[in-house]
Amino acid sequence: MNSLAKTFCATLALLPLQATYANHGDDTSAATPLPAVVVTGERNGSLTASSVAAQEKRLDETAGSVGFIDSTDYQNSYASNLRDVLGNSPGVLTGTRYGQEMRVSIRGSGLARGFHTRGLLILQDGIPTNLADGSGDYYQIDPLALRSTEIYKGGNGLAYGATTLGGAINFVTPTAYTAVAPALIRVEGGGYGSERVSGQASGVLGNADALINVTLSHNDGWRDHSRGDYGQFNSNVGYRISSNVETRFYGGVYIVNQLLPGSLTLGEVENDPRKATLAAKSGNQARDTRTQRIANRTSFKLENGQIDLDSWFIHKSLLHPIFQVIDENGSTYGFAPRYSSSFNLFGLRNDLYAGAQFFGGSNHSRRFFNVGGSSGAPSADAEQTSKNYETYFENRLFVTDKVALMTGAKLFKNLRDYDSQLPNKEASKTYNGFNPKLGVLWLPQQNVQIFADIARSQDVPDFTDLTQFQPPPAPPTAVFVPLAAQKAWTLEVGTRGKIDRLTWDFTLYSAQLRDEMLQFTAAVDAPATTFNADRTRHQGVELGLSYEAVRDNFVAGDHITIKQMWTLNDFSFKNDKTYGNNKIPGAPRNVLRTSIAYTQASGFYFTPTLDWVPQGAWADDKNTLRVHGYALLGLQTGMEWRNGISLFVDARNLADRRYVSDVSTVTAATFDLGTGKPTNAIFAPGDGRNVHAGLRYAF
């Protein structure tokens, strides 16, 4: 057992693993029983944190495309990063690079960026985790510390103030009231030196409740020079001041030490995908972060509504040797009041969400020449300051018992100030916007919904977009580029529901964009350069199906459930003066995932999976280079016993296929004149065959 696991065990010994639950609950949901194999049933939520059933019910009433994930759906698999959480969600594109470094894109949000967050509002427990300029990482989201995940695609995140192209994802951690058990212990291991240990403990004492979750993981990496060590700590403490007032404090510490193997050419992916680039090794390229987060939600229950007051503070430091050494230290702070209510308006049911957000922060960003992974002569030194003022509302009026009309809008002002000391220069940019939304929800019968809506979105550039390193022979310093905000109108129609054994979620959407922020790699190992395209279009299909095909067939209480996910991505330029109607690179056209799950009442399960990308993504704006498609076979099997113990095996890429998991796009691919093979080193290979096993104990 490595030092991380030893430290964890010492920490776990101090945790109060046995706790007593109080049966307090919110008024929106009754307790939902868990399967018999779990020791304890799910408790109701509280004022500051709704029950899982109440979360899903509220989400289902959205007049638009949304998704909900219960953590129990993946608790018996090796959920190492957010791809394992979001992978079954139609419309959500995930691409891994190494370790927990990945790209998440919804409907082409941040399509050309293979790192950090862009075009998505990322929340934890309804409180933003993005930095003040809108950027962010996914490292601090621990899959093993989640109770549920809410996905709001496009303008459907307006209830949280999100009006970006991609929308919002809310990762919800458990409280002592909503945890699946008072205590959990989990130990996992697998190929390429992967090992992880996680523990959770919670309890209620009078009007107070508390939960703590710790996860420590190590992975030598499938590729050379890709070792990663992660420490993730999440906690929350709540106190019921009265029957109508509750406050909850959240705390988190996230430590990342990740070596980077660099990007490969297409030929290297096909012939030697486990290699690291020479630059990655000689420059000891890495990404080491230290993040601390504290937040508070204080909720007041009113006669016909609720007020939530959210506040938060995030501190993050980054040491990131790549083509240069990036050394950053910054803080983000915010305050967001939010009002929600359901009341009668002229005898009609009316649901209202209204809120405001102020959040800001500063980041001291320094760059140095990379000398063997150490900082050499300075090349840039700047203070990056962001301030954001936003107000929004979303209203749903049921004009009949089965038809609801939804209206909403967001008004915002975002400031970006750049004060450079090297070279000595100051620049700033202000973004203003008004984003309306109009939608309708029809409930033709119980458990069936049909919806349509149109919404405007705006994506404001972050400092990774605004401060660009120019390609040689320009001086290697950062230059402020005042990009325009990306704007779009998105129309969507869809349906979701359940009839007997069939469950579905189907959406068609089309977004017309202006000034889309696209990126291309300007130089090897340098950050991508961002530019505003003229007119572009994103459209597609998002389909999720689940059908219980067999019930009580082989033995009493067994089931066979077939699930199919299909995402169609059709992203293109529109009469562009350079690229015509070419496809925008970065995303494959079709992404499919099929699973066939066999389960028994005894707790045994067996689930083969197929991930299929018939054609890979274009790699360049000129559409001269396209990566190959692939099909990956997987298998998950295990056993859950009634005493709370479960054992699982998770095998992936059983055929050991070589494929591209992510691509950093370029404007035009280059080819060797002699062989005709592509020479751009812009591809991240997916992991080869791997098997993980784990033991979980809930008590």
What is the structure about, briefly put?
Helices cover 6% and strands 55% of the residues.
Describe what you observe in this structure.
The structure is a single chain. A hairpin with a 2-residue loop joins strand 14 (305-321) and strand 15 (324-345). The chain starts with a helix and ends with a strand. The chain is 6% helix and 55% strand. It is globular, with a radius of gyration of 24 Å. It has a single domain (3-285, 293-698), classed as TonB-dependent receptor, beta-barrel domain (Maltoporin, Chain A), CATH 2.40.170. The strands form six sheets. It has a 22-stranded antiparallel beta barrel. A five-stranded mixed β-sheet has the order 1-6-7-4-5, with helices on one face. It has six helices and 35 strands. It has 699 residues and is mainly β.
Write the layout of secondary structure elements.
Layout: H1 3-12, H2 52-60, E1 66-70, H3 82-86, E2 92-98, E3 101-106, E4 120-124, E5 127-128, E6 148-153, E7 167-172, E8 183-190, E9 194-205, E10 208-219, E11 228-242, E12 245-259, H4 266-271, H5 278-282, E13 286-302, E14 305-321, E15 324-345, E16 348-371, E17 374-398, E18 403-422, E19 424-445, E20 448-459, H6 463-466, E21 467-469, E22 478-480, E23 486-499, E24 502-514, E25 517-520, E26 529-532, E27 535-551, E28 559-573, E29 590-599, E30 604-613, E31 630-640, E32 645-652, E33 660-663, E34 683-685, E35 690-698
Parallel strand pairs: 4-7
Antiparallel strand pairs: 1-6, 2-3, 4-5, 6-7, 8-9, 8-35, 9-10, 10-11, 11-12, 12-13, 13-14, 14-15, 15-16, 16-17, 17-18, 18-19, 19-20, 20-23, 21-22, 23-24, 24-27, 25-26, 27-28, 28-29, 29-30, 30-31, 31-32, 32-35, 33-34
